[in-house]
Amino acid sequence: MNDQDWMHDLFDRSRREPEPAWSPDTRAIAIGGRRRWRLRAASVGGGALGALAVTAAVVIGLGGFSNGAEVKPGVKKPRSTSVFDYASISANFSDGRSTNAIPVSAVDKMSALIDDLDPGHAHLREMGRAAGIPGPRYQMVGDGSSAVKNITKFIATSVYTTDGTVPRVGSKAPNGSLEITVAGDTGHLGHNSYNTPDVSVYNIPCGYMLMDAFMDTPPTHDAHWSKCVSTPLPDGSKVDSSSTPDGQGTVTVAIREYPNNGGGIVAIWTDYATWRSTLDHTTTLPDRAPDPSMVLKPNPFSEQQLASTLAGPEFAPTDKGKPKPVGSGPRQFLKTGDLSADAAYDPSSSSGGTGDLPMDNGCDYKDINPLAKQGRVAAYTATTPSGKKVTISELEYPLPSGTGPATLATARSQAKGGCDQQASLYSKDTAKDLPAGIGDGAFLENGIGTGAVTVWMRFGDTIVRIDVTQNQVTQGPSMPDLSAPADQAWLVNVAKAAAGHWTAKD
Amino acid sequence: MRGPDEAEFDELVAGRAHAMRRTAYLMCGDWHQAEDLVQVAFMKLHASWHRVRRQEAFDAYLRKTLLRACIDEKRRARWRREAPTDILPEVPDPAPEHDGVRAVLVDGLRQLPPRQRATLVLRYFEDLSVEDTARALGCSPGTVKSQTSKGLTTLRGIVDPTHLARTEEVA
Fold first, then answer.
1. How far is B87 from chain A (nearest CA, A)?
2. Which residue has the higher pLDDT, A27 or A94?
């Protein structure tokens, strides 16, 4: 068993062990939260005013929305838009920046599944409508649009009703829950590449870690998934399915996974009322089988039906073409021309920001936590003069006022060796000063222990770090060997270029 | 509007709290501390509700806050450790530990540097991608990969296979 499988196995087995009972104290949380809010509003001038202004903006925004969608001019219309009428849609964002844009292909697929399973639209409903909650107005865009590049998956949830009447929240009438997930890559689909594929074990049907779906919906712990049924399709994709009893109810999962890390579509069908769809959490308990009176009889959707539906041509992979990493990083950061002729900026790895500044030497961990504010991150791929393919990450660390010089000194000290931890040879780390004139001080760390060659630079109370690493899968986890004179000169030039952009603010 | 809608917030807490406690427990190795850390993370979310809600980034916010709290707690614990006293304090008998795989796992994780531990928990327990883990920890994807590799190698060296086999027999 390789290390990754071993680690997954350990975590999976630990999940199945009993845990001490606990209920979060929501009252204490609310009191503590309000206290924190008051303290912040009182201590930050203008904070309360800002909050009021934002609240007003949100109210105005909601007032302008109605349930539905519009197609961006020039974008091909979807075949069906049922998902906007019969499901609540949510999206996961890789960087926290939300948008109301949705790719046409996701609309097509989610709508097609609703249309296929409920052709007369007599049963599947959106719960929000019962409560009179207006949904956002979505703008449908092309699959390659930059507006959706930070969206990792869309989830559409519908309640299945016997007579088309949307149940009240808390209703214990028999109903079911359909959750459709469309993900842009295999990882966000939930497929654990380290697990043996197509096998249902523990609470992992067909090797898919559907954590979002099963985190709080039974069966969390006591699932007995059926043998995974896997059907390869001519286009290179496959459909997997499995189901598990839960008391008198059944949970069924069907997944169509596209080839080449192309993502796919997941359907999770529960033939009983869940708190996610109609019940609230006070009327049901996690890990408890559903009340038999809330189970639909007969079960309207079988595992075979869900799987054969997803095998249909309407769910074929969309050739969206992965956006090529091009262009340049943020202002003040490296430009691709500084790195190599074939260098590319990788926006998909450049979102988010720095949280704290770790300075690990294996035995005396030091960090700056918190930073004065979150710093920016940019990632590039390039080829060094000696022909090594490397990944370059430029990270910005805004430090508390007046701490810049001492922090760089600490980083330099930490970079000069440390203590070994099994395979991490921190004792072999070395630091070398870079020529004067690069920022307010700069040095090079050969991080045998960290697996990166790192350029450290300081600009007042900001530290900029450039990590040069190699592809772990193809080249191994060790530090890239940049000892060739040409590569050493390249590192100095990269440092000078980074300092130049920083100082010039270009 | 000063805080979140009560029902909406309660639903969020009910939906996330237990999973967060598991993550916090793997980070700190103490159920009570894990519960406190989860409560603190939700308090911070409550206080920042409208800012976070605008971004619809509850999970990312909670995960970051929880990890930060775990690392901060570890740092504070270092200061508290081995404080000299004149009188030996009475220490209650430790609660009997469940001698299962979780105990073995947590014991091993506690011997890793905090960022390696966080990387393994995020990658293999929370099943985050390399990029999402990098965002949560504020480091580069390359660092995540190297920390993952080192953490796995180290942990596999720490965890005693015979001990692990015994947990299987018990189960």
1. 30
2. A27
> How would you classify the pairing of strands A238-246 and A137-141?
unpaired
ipTM: 0.82
Choose the mutation target among B53, B150, B156, B158 for the interface with A, i.e. most A CBs under 10 Å: B150
Classify residue A402 by burial, with Cβ atoms within 10 Å: 0-12, 13-18, 19+. exposed
A27 touches chain B (CB under 8 A): no
Backbone phi and psi for residue B118, each to the nearest 5 degrees, phi listed first: -60, -40
Residue-wise pLDDT tens digits, A404-447: 999 999 999 999 988 876 556 888 899 999 999 999 999 999 98
User: Is pLDDT at A495 greater than 90 in this prediction?
Assistant: yes
Contact residues, A window 244-273, toward B, CB-based 8 Å cutoff: none
pLDDT digits (tens, 9 = 90+) for A215-225: 444 444 567 78
Instruction: Write down the pLDDT at residue A324.
Output: 44
Cβ within 8 Å, pair A91-B135? no
> Which chain A residues are within 8 Å of B119, Cβ to Cβ?
none
Task: Please answer yes or no on whether A369 and B71 come within 8 Å at the CB atom.
Answer: yes
Selected residues 166-225 of chain A with any CB under 8 Å from a CB in chain B: 185, 187-188, 190, 192, 209, 211, 215-216
For A70, the enclosing helix (H) or strand (E) is strand A68-71
CA distance to partner chain A, nearest, from residue B28 (Å)? 15
Planar angle of CA B125, A184, A69, nearest 5 degrees = 120
Question: What average pLDDT does range A458-478 have in this prediction?
Answer: 81
Rg, chain B, Cα only: 18
Contact A58 B54 (CB under 8 A): yes
Cα dihedral A483, A486, A488, A489, rounded to 10, equals 170
What's residue A235's pLDDT?
A: 83
State if pTM tops 0.80: no
Q: Would the CB atoms of A467 and B135 count as touching at under 8 Å?
A: no
Query: Coil, helix or strand for B154?
Result: helix
Interface check for A450 against chain B (CB to CB < 8 A): the answer is yes
Instruction: Kindly tell me the burial class for residue A380, based on how many C-beta atoms sit within 10 Å of its own C-beta (0-12, 13-18, 19 or more).
Output: buried
Whether residue B31 and residue A451 make contact (CB cut-off 8 A), yes or no, is no
Q: How far apart are alpha carbons A256 and A186 in whole angstroms? A: 10
Q: Which of A15, A93, A365 sits opposite B57 (nearest CB)?
A: A93
pLDDT range class, residue A12, cuts 50, 70, 90: confident
For residue A498, how far is the Cα from the chain centroid?
29
How does pLDDT run across A132-160, given as a tens digit for each residue?
555 667 778 887 777 777 777 888 888 89
The answer on pLDDT for A252 being more than 70 is: yes
Structural contact between residues A221 and A16, judged by C-beta atoms closer than 8 angstroms:
yes
Report the alpha-carbon distance of residue B67 to residue A281 in Å, rounded.
26
